[in-house]
């Protein structure tokens, strides 16, 4: 019995050594992808995210070839219709096809989230990297500004702006981004402080590389894993923020459909058709959940402390 147990342990040790040797020469990108695809739940979440993205991008095709109606086409005789071959997800109080409006609403909600995330990443990464690289009074001024802004609830500023101005989807995305980059700036600053002390950065400085070259070629590529994870976790936050503002009446205004304002209108007809509340809420929930799972998996896959 003991001999058999020793053979089993020896086989496991040999297997681990072979696997370590097999993965020793792979690149960081290949290693991260291997870790990510080992997470079946994350792969399923990524597939769901891609399908929702394709649905939103293909909204005109949905309108033309599947439902044969536009997002604002009204058929009052079909109001509150149940799901059927004619209306896959039913119709709303004006007889508008819910499936078509979900597709077009996804374009707005996901578009706001993606545009806002890109703007927030650009500002947050730039401010965090500059504050950490130059230090001194630049770091003090920028980080104290970040601390002040983090102490102010962004939702109240967004409601104030929404009550004073009527903004379109693109402007709304930029406004949300301008109030959402502060946390990323602190993350990038912390990682940059660690990277800039490494030998290859000192070597680049010794050979006369400019600050721009050092930051863009030697520092930012080594904090990109932080930026990627922050992006995947920021998109769900932007979706929820847009939905909350639209639900309160300060976001995207009808007749332009978004998942948030579809949910707002549906609450008025809860007893006539509960599906009008459930469907946009479901799409918001499943999108945020899928993106959060992908973000968590990417964080684990890109973690440099994991060697397997």
Mean pLDDT over the full residue set: 82
Which topology of the largest domain does CATH recognise? MetI-like fold
Q: Number of helix segments? A: 14
How many strands?
0
Distance between the termini: 31 Å
- CATH superfamily of the largest domain, called what? MetI-like
Percent of residues in helices comes to over 70%
Structural class: mainly alpha
Largest sheet: none
Percentage of residues in strands: under 5%
Uncertain stretches: 9-23
- The CATH first-level class of the largest domain comes to Mainly Alpha
Task: Supply the CATH architecture of the largest domain.
Answer: Orthogonal Bundle
Choose one word for the global shape. elongated
Radius of gyration: 25 Å
Q: Can you tell me the number of structural domains? A: 2
H/E topology pattern: HHHHHHHHHHHHHH
Write the layout of secondary structure elements.
Blueprint: H1 2-23, H2 28-37, H3 40-57, H4 59-66, H5 98-134, H6 136-150, H7 154-164, H8 169-178, H9 182-195, H10 199-206, H11 211-219, H12 224-248, H13 259-267, H14 275-301
Provide an overview of this structure.
The structure is a single chain. This protein folds into 2 domains: 1-27; 39-301, MetI-like (MetI-like fold), CATH 1.10.3720. The chain is 72% helix and 0% strand. It is built from 14 helices and no strands.
Summarize the structure.
With 308 residues, the protein is mostly helical.
Question: Can you give keywords for this protein?
Answer:
single chain, 308 residues, mainly alpha, MetI-like fold, 2 domains, 14 helices, elongated
